Amino acid sequence: MKTLKVLDLFAGGGGFSTGFLQASYPDINFEILRAVELDQAACDTLRSHIGEDRVIQGDITTTEVKEEIYTSCSDVDVVIGGPPCQTFSLAGPARSGTAEMRQKLKDDPRNTLYKHFFEIVDRIKPVFVVFENVEGMLSKKVDGAQELNNKQAQVIELICDELESKGYKTGIQDSISDRFQVLNAVQYGVPQNRKRIIIIANRLGMDNPRLDPTHGWDDKPFLTVKDAIADLPVRLPKISFARLDSLKNIDVIKNNYKASLLTFMNMLKDLAIKEVHCKQSEGVMELYSSLKEEYELIKDKKTYKMYNLKKFIEKYNELILKYSVNQFRDSQELCNHQSREHNFRDIIIFIKTKQGSNSARFMNHESDDYDRFLDSLYPYSRNKHKDTYVKHSWNKPSNTILAHMEKDGLKFIHPEQPRTLTPYEAQLLQSFPKEYVFQGGRNDQYRQIGNAVPPSLAKVIGESILEMSMRFEKINGVQAI
Ligand SMILES: C[S@@+](CC[C@H](N)C(=O)[O-])C[C@H]1O[C@@H](n2cnc3c(N)ncnc32)[C@H](O)[C@@H]1O
Questions:
Q1: Which residue intervals of 15-88 are DSSP H helices?
Q2: Mean pLDDT, all residues of the chain
Q3: Is 1.10.10.10 the CATH classification of the domain at 2-218+452-476?
């Protein structure tokens, strides 16, 4: 077995590396020789998966880190990585022109990370380079999608020029001019729409592989949210109630007190029935039965409604712990499958929003999803973004999982359960293996997951490089490395 040695720059929690380690081709595979990353939690994750000694923790721009890379990675065959995308927010004015863009790319201090990536490539001179970044990596200030696409394409072309000037071929097979590919992860076995720009470059003088989709046909359809997370145990959120009275629009709940409680109880009943039916643990049924007693006591109260609602929530919070439907106590298994805390208003919004719908639609009188109650409950400004709440659909791929989930997850509402997605669900929607464990607190985990190249996409990229390497050997009778 021959092994190509990989250096993963800006490695995050290891999505790119994981996919490369999964890549298989007869008689050849990859080894992650080193992964370089700044963030503590991400480094801890990397260490637990690729090994303590293979992680260089530090700032790529510093001389010490570079020296460590040069000392340990002189015989690296492949450099993979994507400098963080804000590095490229350089488009600014609508002026174009390749010379000007080139100068701006070089001069803009925000682009230092990009420069360091290529400085390291130039020094190590690996046979293969894979550069990844988000689609739309240029400033979103540019007006008009066409303009954005043109400018974006220009910057990518400049990056390709840079690689070419260092002796790499970036051209893609069966094409006269294509040098980069925009790939949607959903077409490569990831249950998520996620577009990424990929440049593959090599020093062998070979045309680079075009990555044909593996999914999206009748006999191999796109994977869905259901495929990825439906068989996980139910997780119910803790409900915050400390500032319940001052929550924006909580009066709407107060004025619909009985109906709101019933909405909540019906949701629990549906989950409980389903859970028993699926022969999972019966925690939700027990929770529902116990909470029903409290519900019967308070549902018809005409006064002190907020006081009673708080008591109800307190009881619920006790019960989710008692019946272990909030987290797995005494168990490391599925330890990252735990929900954030939510307030009662948001929980009612989560339940009543239709699967696959969002707040822009439930506030739009013209939409089939219009809902007067939800419209009056919406607590945010309506002038800017109306799609604050987005509920996922079982039968579709998920929306792009974002690092922003570390701030809030309102765009990632579970199709059925009254909460946003857990880190573990986000990890599965990103195609990380079930046994992969992210280190750090919950927000660190969301950030690492949202930033990652989906392993299933990275695997396809990796396999195309293994295949290219073997093809070179076959054609030339000499080894690529
Ligand atoms: C988009 S994420 C990379 C995700 C990764 N490729 C994956 O597949 O999981 C970019 C990473 O670059 C790291 N980073 C940013 N500046 C850095 C620097 N100066 N030195 C090292 N790492 C840096 C960030 O902490 C972040 O984890």
A1: 15-22, 40-50, 63-72
A2: 90
A3: no
